[in-house]
Amino acid sequence: MTDHIETDVVIIGAGPVGLFAVFELGLLDIKCHLIDILPKVGGQCAELYPEKPIYDIPGFPMVTGQGLVDNLMAQIEPFHPTFHLNEMVESLESIGTPEAPLFRVKTSENGTTFTCKSVIIAAGGGSFQPKKPPIDNIEAYEGTGVYYAVRKMEMFRNKKVLIVGGGDSALDWTVNLQPIAKRLTLLHRRDAFRAAPHTVEKMRSLVAAGDMDLHLGQVSALKGEAPVLEGAVIRKDDGSEFTVDCDVMLPFFGLTMKLGPIADWGLNLHENLIPVDTEKFETNVPGIFAIGDINTYPGKLKLILSGFHEGALAAQKVHRYVYPEKKLLFQYTTSSTSLQKKLGVAA
Amino acid sequence: MHPIRRTLLRLIPEFIRRNSRFMGVIHVTDRAGQRHTLEAIEGWRVMEIIRDWGLPIEGLCGGACECATCHVFVAEEWLDKLFPPTDEEEDQLDTVVTKPNSRLSCQILWTPELDGLEVTLAPTGA
FAD/NAD(P)-binding domain: from which residue to which, for each copy (chain A) (predicted)? Predict the structure, then answer.
């Protein structure tokens, strides 16, 4: 059964900018749901550079990516946003009018549908997706011989499995699939692994015992009549090549970001970015806003602080759509008792 | 803003750029095989120079050595003139299909010693 949710606003992307938009909307009594393809909140800050220090967040001489996300989560806690993680927005359909926008949003994984009065796209560089190695014709084997994630381990029982990569995903799946695979081969470009040391040790002991193979090199071509994979041609650093027989190849090359389905929503795009005005950060479709790294306008700077500002201004316009009959009174959290009540800090 | 003021504000940085000491160039071959000669600026990362000139280099993470979308192949004769890759860069190179002359262009800080540096943009995955 698919869920249906009615809410004021759906925010696409739970990175820092999407998270702060919850705060600005919350102060205006606007409820929101956030959807993100990652299994955790924080976007690039949490996925790409959780430990990296950031020095240009106002008021924080230094904060790490994860530290910023944790603080934002604490800041928006009073507004109890609902998160839909591990889900990608598949379709966004306008079912209202320009004066009274209404949207239907559908996610791919659980097929949850939302009806909302505004949509805020805070999707950064797009949705995180597995990085596909540039190997000729690799697409022809996807879903039959090439997989970028393991959904069901059973699929790989009694298969000749080739895992490519040297990080945690590659090593974890090496250790987990080795017992059920007919033969498991791990391929990496060098003899150094950036995975958890105990997993690396376990892999090394399996190799030493002859229970799996480890090769150094890179895949240069795939063999077998697509979509049936039969092997991979491996090129070593010295230029020599050999073939590893395999039924399936699992490349674990980390994540990258792709615009994905956003391109199909009838929004104007400029070089994979969404043009917006600089008063409301609204797109060419009334009621759909774009804030943070995904938008573009003259003078745009891809800074987290710019995204915070954009969220605050977008929230003002969203208020007009959600409460068309209400006049919006501009207030400060320092002095407004009503805002302080919303934040749970009123004396 | 007054139009003259606006024009001046636009022209001043351009004037400074054009009249600053000539630094040098890098040669970049794009994925279609076309070679571009780009003026380089000391202290800029090679990724930033390539991006600033509008060639298709993604540089998704903005130069933080976290994404490998600025992967280039460096011409053999230049490899020894570069600082060797850090462990962090090697970790990122693990996430693409490399050749022995693979580097991340965000990790190459351009200095006048690199005048004439020759790089080729690496293919991107689908």
Answer: 8-298
Residues from chain A contacting residue B96 (CB–CB below 8 Å): 131, 133-134, 253
Q: What mean pLDDT, rounded, does chain B reach?
A: 88
* Contact criterion met (CB below 8 Å) for B11 and B76: no
ipTM of the complex: 0.75
d(CA B71, CA A271): 20
CATH number for region A4-128+256-342: 3.50.50.60
Give the start-to-end residue ranges of the domains of chain B: 22-121
How far is the alpha carbon of A191 from chain B, nearest alpha carbon, in Å?
Answer: 11
Q: Is the dihedral of CA A337, A341, A342, A344 positive or negative?
A: positive
The predicted model scores a pTM of 0.80
Q: Does B98 touch chain A (CB under 8 A)?
A: yes
The shortest C-alpha distance from B31 to chain A (Å) reads 12
Chain B interface mutation, best of A54, A129, A131, A255, highest count of B Cβ atoms under 10 Å:
A131
Taking the Cβ of residue B96 and every Cβ of chain A, the question of whether any pair is shorter than 8 Å is answered with yes
- Cis peptide leading into residue A134 (ω within 30°): no
Q: Which CATH superfamily is domain B22-121 in?
A: Beta-grasp domain (3.10.20.30)
What is the tens place of the pLDDT at every residue in A36-55?
A: 999 999 999 998 888 889 99
